[in-house]
Amino acid sequence: QVQLVESGGDLVQPGGSLTLSCAASQRFFSIATMGWYRQLPGKQRELVAFWDTLGPKNYSEAVKGRFTISGDNFKSTVNLQMNSLKPDDTAVYYCSISGWITELATRQNYWGKGTVVAVSS
């Protein structure tokens, strides 16, 4: 079973920057989409950044212009560069990769267990 592991979460002051990373326990044969989501306790998980690897990158209005998603299909990694962080960005951040582990596998969606980002002075 493929596992995704996020890293990079930390406590940071408002206006600061963080880079979140997500790595798969094994390389995908092919990746269709990559994404980052976040969730606050008691609230629904929300989309932060999404990349259809054959198309453009999309961002929520809350983070547009401040966050950048990037990924490496060969390495099966996805990153989230977060700049100008605000207290409202405080959440557990989850990565997601949808793709094919092998040439004959069916497409599946995988999630990491999350990494905590806290923005506070």
In short:
The protein is mainly beta and 121 residues long. The protein has strands at residues 4-7, 11-12, 18-24, 30-39, 46-52, 57-59, 67-72, 77-82, 91-100, 108-111, 115-119.
What shape does the CA trace take?
elongated
Classification by helices and strands: mainly beta
* Element-by-element helix/strand order: EEEEEEEEEEE
Helix content range: under 10%
Strand content: over 45%
Number of helices, where a helix is a run of at least 4 consecutive DSSP H or I residues: 0
- Uncertain spans: none
Q: Rg, please?
A: 14 Å
Task: List how many beta strands DSSP finds.
Answer: 11
Integer average pLDDT: 96
Protein described:
With 121 residues, the chain is an all-beta fold. It is built from no helices and 11 strands. Strands 2, 4, 5, 6, 9, 10 and 11 form a 7-stranded mixed β-sheet that branches. The protein has a 4-stranded antiparallel β-sheet with strand order 1-3-8-7, with no helix packed on it. A hairpin with a 6-residue loop joins strand 4 and strand 5. The model has no long low-confidence stretch (mean pLDDT 96).
